[in-house]
Design a protein that fits this description.
six-stranded mixed β-sheet, 195 residues, 41% helix, Rossmann fold, alpha/beta, 8 helices
Amino acid sequence: MIVVLTPCAPSEWRAEGRLLGRVELSISADAPERLDQWAAMLRSLPIARIYHGPDELSTLTARELGKRTRFGVRKLAGLAAVDVGLWAGLSDAELEIRFESTYHELLDAPLNVTPPQGENLGDAAERLAAALQRATRGVRDGEGVAIVLRPLALALLRQRMTGAAEARVWESLGEADEPVIVEIQPAASSRRAKS
């Protein structure tokens, strides 16, 4: 089965390298072109449905992809963006300066980190993995799903699905701007990622 981890449409904050968290944002001017490209890729795959979190940016992205592909779209609360608390809107450089010791832990063991007034990243990864299980339940052999996620959620779920080193989560945020195809075995543990 394939799972296409799809980023939400580009936004001004994302272009500036800011953490989105759960802040509601509108899409940027270049979003329609990117959505057209992503939809073309999705149409070439055996996708059964597009799932998304409850935030406006993920919802809009999934609906637009659904219109362009004619795939069904469904909201899953468990796919909500990671709550980064007081870090929302900060750039990587600002985060490093203002939260120096925590920043170093983000680079080494991000799943142990809890942003101030936010959600523990390890707990968020567990929540996202459980939502993925719900989304893939009942998917027929030879089909897959697309999952629309905000960047940090995409990085966490990608790490969980591929078994990549935990330390790669934070640096892989920069790679969360294009869809990623992950092949999974429904009942087995073998996984393989493609970009």
